[in-house]
Structure formats: structure tokens, C-alpha cells
Design brief:
By secondary structure, the chain is mainly α. It contains 27 helices and 7 strands. A hairpin with an 8-residue loop joins strand 5 and strand 6 (372-374). The longest helix is centred in the C-terminal third of the chain and has 36 residues, at 437-472. The protein is globular, with a radius of gyration of 24 Å.
Length: 596
């Protein structure tokens, strides 16, 4: 008898595993020990050399100080990246977990010598700093502006050092607990024991009975850990509330917005614009999809189900790679060439395996090295789009590397631009090559679902976080309280054409962004609307667009969203900007309705 899993694996083909030796050859290698010793020596020397002296430096002296600080950050970033990637490869291994925690603590101890630097930089008088910007320090002006944006919210050095030193035993510890609980969970289905990635994949299986059983098994197992997840959520929300009060952030999301270099008002406008489209986008689409399934309403396990008549084939890894690179190449040969480096080198970890971190991500590491991609590839169309998405991040990170460790990181408001644009390029290439009307309809519907998941669902997540954090400021929340908020938000965003059962009440527990990066999720909606608007500019006037686009990615964190979008005639502070991006999604649904 044929083993279905073995057959599935054969169809996918050989999947790549990453090789982290470009960072370090192993946890016990001499190079890692040497870097730890060098970072500690350089950090203590930096403290002794510059503490209390920044305001008295000339521009070249301040520039040299920042360059020395940046070099230490590069070493610490390399160590941290290696530990994080090793840990992501197997969250369940106690030895790896111990190594990751040990490196986190060592890096935290070393970087405590650097805490003074940003605080003292913020203490320099504006007039003195203006004079210092005439020298070598001018290169770092974007980074200095970002640091000084937090001046109203910084605390005394003693308190800042206390918060810094306690991090590994506070938020980081709760995050680790979440990761290890999720990694160790197994979901029993039809006599098998599945990881979270494997059972979530069953929720998009063509077999409705399998989807229903998978959804129940997933929710029931999450519910069994409900007390742990609610404790993590309550603790992290309270921890954030305490720090926000000390730093004078009135709203739970304000610190995230400031770090994203975007005004509260812009995010509010995005949130309002998306919520206003719930009826004409998600409610309307799921009503349409329910009709295709011959139902009055979809059960939640049908939400991501393939449409009737959809081709249910496994997409081999080689085909996925070729599809994505061809789409990138149609747009820009340079973009494709950079993307190809991830496949030609061991920079991607693609297989699903026990203990591996769920989901997908692109880790930038440090500019002196290169990014790595983590996937859990299972041969679905969505997996191909995930590859296109994460490769976009990776290419962006390489293009921005010349900005250096302090300025290569892109604000979250633009961090999803290259990734979502990569998805759009891939989708448009595949759609253009398809001339069968039924298959085009299925492809369009799949894209609409991806957009709903990226825009509608992520804004729903954002509002779930808002309500949880606001409610937590009044009292601790029971697990049932959090479940009630979740179901209320899901009903509002998905509409009456989607039904929920008891098991779905617990689906909030597995969303990692709520734990790792509070209020990150709106960046996906920001990015999707931005890419829709960008792509419209590309279609209308493609001449020179690729060059301007790559220049935008090369800017990394050196320019704000207004400066970066100006060459394309776009302005995220204009409400019409969001309406235009959301109109693309609504227009695709119009097209689907016209197809019948």
C-alpha cells in the first residue's frame, strides 16, 4: 500500500536546508568564542572612552563614536542571529534551547555597556548637534533622528539599564515559553500525530470532512493549553502597560508606531479605511464563496478551502523556484539575480519537521553576512506565494545592506513592500499565462483570499490586540474573556457568511505576532495597500519604474515613507491612498461576480 506522505514528499522533491556556517560553524566553534570576547572587550572600552563625552566631540569625533558603536552591534547581531536561527531550526531540543538562552544572556550583558550611548546622544543640545552634523556624523543623520524621536519617552540611565538587564527574564522568557509550548504540541488526527504546520495545512485540503476534523483537533488541543496562553497574553499585556506608563505612551500601539516612523493618525486612517470595507470585501466575498459551495454560509474550516474544480496537485520545489524567479526576472533582471543567490547557496530551510519553528520568515542577520529564509514548504499554491513573499524580504535585505547595521533595517510600514510586491509579480505572471476561464476564476479567487488574509484579517488581528490591551488595563482577562473578544472581532471582519464553532474560539492562541511583536500586524495591511497602489503606477508607466523601485529598497531605513513614495506620486497620509489600494481588492471581487 502506498504511503501518502512518502508519495507527497516524492512529488515535492528535494527541499533545501540552510547552512549557518556563514555565521559560525557550530555553537562551540572558536570564532564564536572569539567574537564574544571581542564584543565584550570593545563594549567595555567604548563605555570607558565615550561615556560623558559625546556633547564635547566635534562632528568627526561623533561620527567615529557611532561607527565604533555600529561595529560592536554588528558582532552582537551576528551572534544573536546565529543563536536565533539555530533555535528556530529545532525549538524542542533542550541543548539548543539552552544555547539560545545562554547567547541571549551573554549578548544582553555585553550590550548593557552600550545603554548609555543612545541616552547621552539624546541629551545633546539641538544647537550642538547641528554643528556636529557638519562632520562625519552627518552620514548617520537618519539613525540619529530615529533615536532622538524617542527623547520624550526615555527614562534615566539606571532605569533603562534595569529594563535592559531584566529583558531576558521578562518578555524574552515569556516569548520562549510560547515558542516551546507551540513546538511541542501535537495534534491527533486520524491516527496520526501532526505538528501545527501540518494540521494547518489540512485546513486547505479539498476534502471537507478532513478539514472539519482537522479544525476540531486543532482547536481542542489549543484549548487544552488555554490557561498557559492566556497567562502569557495577560502577562505580556501588563508588562507593556507598565512600561508604556513609565514612558508616557498613552495608547498601547503608539510605541510601535513611533518605532515604525509612522504617525498614529496614519495608522488610524488605515484602520478606519479597512474596517469600512468589511461589508464590500470580506463579507461579500465569503457570501460569494458560500454560493460556489452550495451553502448559505461557510463553516470556518471552509474559509481557505480550495474552490470546487481547483487543481489539487503538489507543486514540486523546482517548479516553485522557477516560477518565482521567472516572475522576478520579468520585472528586473537584477531582482532575479539577487533572488537566485538564495537557491544557489544554502540560504533557505524549506522542509517541515518536528520541532521546527512554524510559519515562515526572512531573517536579515547582519549586513556583513546575508539573510536566511525559513519556510515550511508543503507544495500548495500558497506555499509558492509564501516563497515569493519571503524571497522579496531577502532581496530587500541584501539591497539595503550597504546602509550598514544601524540603517539597513526598514521601518515596518515599508518592511512588507518588497515581499508583497514579489507575491504580486508571481501571481500576475501565472495569471497571464492561464487562458482557461475556469482556472482563471479559481486563481483570481485565490488571490482575493490572500488579500483578505493580508489586509482584512491582519487589521482584525490589530483590533483584537487593541481590545485585549485596553481591557487588560482594567483587569486580568480570563481565557474566556479573550475568546469572546476574538469571536466578536472575527464576526465583524468576516461577516455573516462564515460560521464559528466552539473550537474556533481558541485560534487566537497560536498567532505568534501577538507575542513576539505587539501591533506588528497592521504592517501587512499597510504593505498590501501600498503594493496595490505601486503596482497600478507600474502598469500605467513602467518605464524606469524598476530602477526607482530598487532605489527605494536600497534606501533601507535611511528615508521615511513620505520620501520613499514621493517618486511614485504616492502619499500614505492621503485617505485616497488607502481607498485606491483597497479598491483593487474590491475590483477583483467585481470581476469574480461577473464571471458567475
Amino acid at each position: 500500500m502506498t504511503n501518502p506522505q512518502a508519495q507527497h514528499d516524492d512529488e515535492i522533491g528535494n527541499l533545501p536546508n540552510w547552512d549557518l556556517s556563514d555565521l559560525y560553524s557550530g555553537p562551540d566553534c572558536p570564532a564564536l568564542s572569539d567574537d564574544l570576547a571581542r564584543a565584550e572587550r570593545d563594549a567595555t572600552g567604548f563605555d570607558a572612552t565615550y561615556r560623558g563625552r559625546l556633547a564635547n566631540l566635534d562632528g568627526d569625533g561623533l561620527g567615529a563614536a557611532i561607527a565604533a558603536y555600529e561595529a560592536i552591534e554588528d558582532i552582537l547581531g551576528r551572534i544573536t542571529s546565529y543563536a536565533q536561527l539555530t533555535y528556530a531550526g529545532n525549538l524542542s531540543d533542550p541543548g539548543i534551547a539552552r544555547f539560545h538562552q545562554t547567547m541571549s544572556e551573554r549578548v544582553n550583558d555585553i550590550s548593557s555597556h552600550l545603554v548609555f550611548f543612545r541616552l547621552e546622544l539624546n541629551g545633546i543640545d539641538d544647537g550642538i548637534l547641528a554643528d556636529q552634523m557638519q562632520g562625519a556624523a552627518a552620514r548617520y543623520r537618519p539613525w540619529i533622528d530615529d533615536v532622538r524621536a524617542f527623547r520624550p519617552h526615555q527614562l534615566s540611565e539606571d532605569i533603562e539599564r534595569l529594563l535592559h538587564d531584566k529583558r531576558v527574564a521578562a518578555r524574552a522568557a515569556w516569548t520562549r515559553l510560547f515558542e516551546e509550548v507551540m513546538a511541542d504540541m501535537r495534534f491527533e488526527l486520524d491516527g496520526g500525530s501532526l505538528t501545527s504546520e501540518e494540521i494547518l495545512n489540512r485546513l486547505s485540503d479539498p476534502n471537507e470532512s478532513l478539514r472539519r476534523r482537522a479544525a476540531a483537533a486543532f482547536g481542542e488541543e489549543l484549548a487544552r493549553h488555554g490557561r498557559v496562553f492566556s497567562l502569557i497574553t495577560n502577562t505580556l499585556a501588563k508588562d507593556k502597560e507598565i512600561e508604556d506608563k513609565w514612558r508616557n505612551f498613552e495608547r498601547p500601539q503608539s510605541s510601535r508606531n513611533l518605532s515604525n516612523q509612522v504617525e498614529d493618525e496614519v495608522v488610524d486612517a488605515l484602520n478606519t479605511a479597512v474596517r469600512s470595507t468589511f461589508p464590500r470585501i470580506s463579507h461579500r466575498y465569503y457570501r460569494l464563496k458560500a454560493g460556489w459551495f452550495g451553502k448559505e454560509a461557510l463553516d470556518h474550516w471552509d474559509r481557505n478551502a480550495p474552490l470546487p474544480g481547483a487543481e489539487d496537485r503538489v507543486i514540486p520545489w523546482r517548479e516553485a523556484r522557477d516560477t518565482v524567479l521567472a516572475a522576478y526576472g520579468d520585472f528586473s533582471g537584477e531582482l532575479a539575480d539577487i533572488g537566485r543567490r538564495f537557491f544557489d547557496n544554502a540560504w533557505i530551510d524549506a522542509p517541515v519537521r518536528e520541532g521546527k519553528a512554524p510559519g515562515a520568515f526572512a531573517h536579515p542577520t547582519v549586513p556583513s553576512a546575508h539573510p536566511y529564509l525559513l519556510l515550511n514548504y508543503q507544495g500548495r499554491v500558497r506555499d509558492v506565494m509564501t516563497l515569493a513573499h519571503e524571497l522579496g524580504h531577502g532581496v530587500h535585505q541584501i539591497l539595503a545592506a550597504d546602509c550598514g547595521p544601524l540603517m539597513a533595517d526598514t521601518p515596518l510600514t515599508l518592511a512588507e513592500t518588497a515581499s508583497v510586491f514579489g507575491e504580486m509579480l508571481t501571481f500576475r505572471r501565472v495569471l497571464t499565462a492561464e487562458d482557461d476561464l475556469q482556472r482563471r476564476r479559481i486563481m483570481l479567487a485565490s488571490k482575493v483570499e490572500d488579500m483578505i488574509n493580508t489586509v482584512i484579517r491582519q487589521i482584525a488581528f490589530y483590533n483584537f490586540e487593541l481590545r485585549v490591551h485596553e481591557a487588560r488595563r482594567k483587569a486580568e482577562l480570563t481565557a474566556e474573556d479573550i475568546c469572546d473578544i476574538w469571536i466578536d472581532i472575527q464576526g465583524e471582519s468576516l461577516g455573516p457568511a462564515v460560521r464559528f464553532d466552539e473550537s474556533y474560539r481558541w485560534y487566537w492562541t497560536y498567532i505568534p505576532h501577538f507575542v513576539h511583536s505587539p501591533f506588528y500586524v497592521y504592517a501587512y495591511a499597510f504593505g498590501d495597500c501600498l503594493v496595490n497602489s505601486l503596482y497600478a503606477v507600474y502598469e500605467q508607466a513602467s518605464e524606469g519604474f524598476a530602477e526607482r523601485y530598487l532605489d527605494m529598497l536600497r534606501a533601507g531605513g535611511t528615508r521615511r515613507h513620505r520620501e520613499l513614495l514621493a517618486p511614485f506620486g504616492l502619499d500614505a497620509s492621503d485617505p485616497a491612498f488607502w481607498d485606491g489600494g483597497l479598491g483593487v481588492v474590491s475590483g477583483l471581487i467585481d470581476e469574480l461576480e461577473a464571471m458567475g
